[in-house]
Amino acid sequence: MGDLDFGVIERSLPYLLKGLQYTVQLTLAAALGGTIFGTLLAMARLSSFKPLALAAAGYVNLMRSLPLLLVIFWFYFLVPVLAQTVMGWERPPQIGAERSAYITFIMFEAAYFCEIMRAGIQSISRGQVGAAYAVGLTYWQAMKLVILPQAFRNMLPVLLTQSIILFQDVSLVSLLNVTDFVGAAVKIAQRDSRIVEMYLFVAIVYFILCYTLSFMVKRLQQKIAIVR
Amino acid sequence: MIEIKDVSKWYGSFQVLSHCTTHVKKGEVVVVCGPSGSGKSTLIKTVNALEPFQKGEISVDGISVGDAKTDLPKLRAKIGMVFQNFELFPHMKIRENLTIGQIKVLGRKPDEATERGLKMLDRVGLIAQKDKYPGQLSGGQQQRVAIARALSMDPIAMLFDEPTSALDPEMINEVLDVMVELAEEGMTMMCVTHEMGFARRVAHRVIFMDQGAIVEDATKDDFFGKPRSERAQLFLSKILHH
Asked: B213-219 and B205-210 as β-strands: parallel, antiparallel, unpaired?
């Protein structure tokens, strides 16, 4: 421990930043995609058409019962093989770790965002739904113009908190040898034998980012609480 | 205008409406009253299909409400409805509340919709509030905006579901005044309300409901003069003795 060399951070900064950029991109894509698909799933779960509601509930419960790491491995290693068998291809399709990570995270997060949006939709009174219909709006119009904007607003702090957790969970893709922020740090740490410096640096960056974001969500929560 | 024929409705095995038959003619004002839980709110909500029913038939302006082929949004757009809890859209300004249905359902241009909406807002005496949010208005003001929202769709009939029940006493009259004015202009109205003063003043007919059934359906004078059923007499004696 006597001879720590923090210069390694500065020397590898462009590489680390590229990793951080991937982490942020994957987080944003998963949060956005998760919100969109999660909202559709929530509408399906609340549908009066039972088969649709059951299918959505089954998907959400399955995803929420599996460890994220297992789902990541499933999509990366097993789904291409399954696709090959089902489609009768000669070789498994080459999806690639980075693209596989995007698909996995959007599908996985959709299950969690679904439950948040479901609570949000249910927080809107039946009377609002009735008023929207009474004006002559269709189901989709009532959802888009009346229910979802209010549900989204009520749930915004929870959605953002889930996104912060997602930002941390993205680090799991480094196990697929993807160069996200953690993945980049691991590679440098092993190449230059600077494990302490690199892991300390990554921890500090994660802490600063996540703590700042959490603080901002808290402020937002107070602001929303006052307006209502 | 509104024909209700032998309508029954169940929640599971519990019957909330049983064999209800009545009508509202064009230009007629019909008040529906009765003890709480008698099914009057449920009945009025079946008229624009906010509540489904299992038996019987309802038609509005000749269009069957229960028919699966009926374009419900189109039918609902013709019938204005005012709710007990106002149900303005809280995330929209007053002017947006007034125009959203006109633009999205009737396909009016934003300018035209705004002009029509603000005219109705002026009519209920709240033009100064056009850029506020519903949460910034009093209950009475919100209910008047809700009436203006319904009127700006140029409805052929209006349904009122206990429009003054959630209001503080000092705000009840400002809403009733608007309703009386509407009635006097010849609007077709079906009103669930306990305001017997309003019924006396403008109603043509009064319907009394109890336990999901229409017990009495009489002209105003008959109803207040000599109600035939004992239950209606009891109900009236309870709410009128002050």
From this structure: antiparallel
